[in-house]
Amino acid sequence: MRKSLLVLLLWAPFAMALLPPPGQRLDQPTQQAIQRFLLHNRILDTPQDLDRAPYIVAAGAGHVLGANDERVYARGNLDPTQPSYGIFRRGRVYTDPETQELLGLNVDDIGSARFVNAGDLSTLAVQRATREIRPGDRLLHALAPIELAHVQALKPAPFVQGQIIDIPKGVTQIGVLDAITLNKGRRDGLVEGQLLTVIKTGATVRDTLTNAPVTLPDERAGTLLVFRTFEKLSYGLVLSASHPLAVLDRFETVRQSQ
């Protein structure tokens, strides 16, 4: 833990350079990091959205391991005008930490394939495979790239509070330029390009003189940029961190100066 904190403290002066003034564009490396993350991560509003998606029946010659340019065969409502599809598999179901409301489904990236021929069994050619492609994997159309024209929203946004609920890449400690999942989305008023403040809840310690438990004050611990919103969830990118961040840390929208 001491080593993690030291790294974050050393990073802090450099991380602040990632926070351009309102109205300024993000630097190109940061935008590229966001686009790469979005290529491999997707959230659906409900599990049923995945269940209704086209699915792979078989790979070429009955194989289940998709190599580049290998043919795979799929069934479902595929659009011949869609040049390529992402291949995904059911992942984690997200629920709200407090209300237990179903918020969405994370789907795991398996690869991508380009459309070749339509039919009862449509043919696609594998373009990219991150792991074994199996019958039952689902095909989703590619999302349009996002353009974060400005760091902050151009119109006033409501005050929103929430929690970090996941780190999609599976690590336990969150650092600068890590992408995280938030339990608030479009319905709550979050918009792409919005800045959020991360707040760590004060730990409970014991007063050595009175032996009574004492809760330390909450502390501001970092800044997030919302870069993709869904109905009930959002993705955020850590732009700065003065303390190690973790799942269930709180966030709130940055208050606009008058």
Search tags:
258 residues, mainly beta, Thrombin, subunit H, 7-stranded antiparallel sheet, 6-stranded antiparallel β-barrel, 3 helices, 38% strand, disordered N terminus
Helices and strands in order:
Elements: H1 2-15, H2 28-40, E1 41-44, H3 47-51, E2 55-59, E3 71-75, E4 84-95, E5 102-117, E6 122-129, E7 138-141, E8 161-166, E9 179-182, E10 195-200, E11 204-206, E12 213-215, E13 219-229, E14 234-241, E15 250-253
Antiparallel strand pairs: 1-5, 2-3, 3-6, 4-5, 4-7, 5-6, 8-9, 8-15, 9-14, 10-13, 10-15, 11-12, 13-14
Signal peptide: 1-17
InterPro entries: Bact_Kbp (IPR052196)
Protein name: Peptidoglycan-binding protein
Q: CATH topology of the largest domain, anyone?
A: Thrombin, subunit H
Overall average residue pLDDT: 83
C-alpha geometry: elongated
CATH class of the largest domain equals: Mainly Beta
Helical percent range?
Answer: 10-25%
Helix/strand order, N-terminal first: HHEHEEEEEEEEEEEEEE
CATH homologous superfamily caption of the largest domain: FlgT, C-terminal domain
* Oligomeric description of these chains: single chain
Rounded to the nearest angstrom, the distance between the terminal CA atoms is 39 Å
Q: Describe the biggest sheet?
A: 7 strands, antiparallel
How many E-type strands? 15
Q: Which runs of at least 5 residues are low in confidence (pLDDT < 50)?
A: 1-19
Q: Count up the helices.
A: 3
Strand residue content? 35-45%
Decide which structural class fits the backbone: mainly beta
Number of domains as seen in the coordinates: 2
The radius of gyration computed from the alpha-carbon positions, rounded to a whole number of angstroms, is: 21 Å
User: Architecture of the largest domain, according to CATH?
Assistant: Beta Barrel
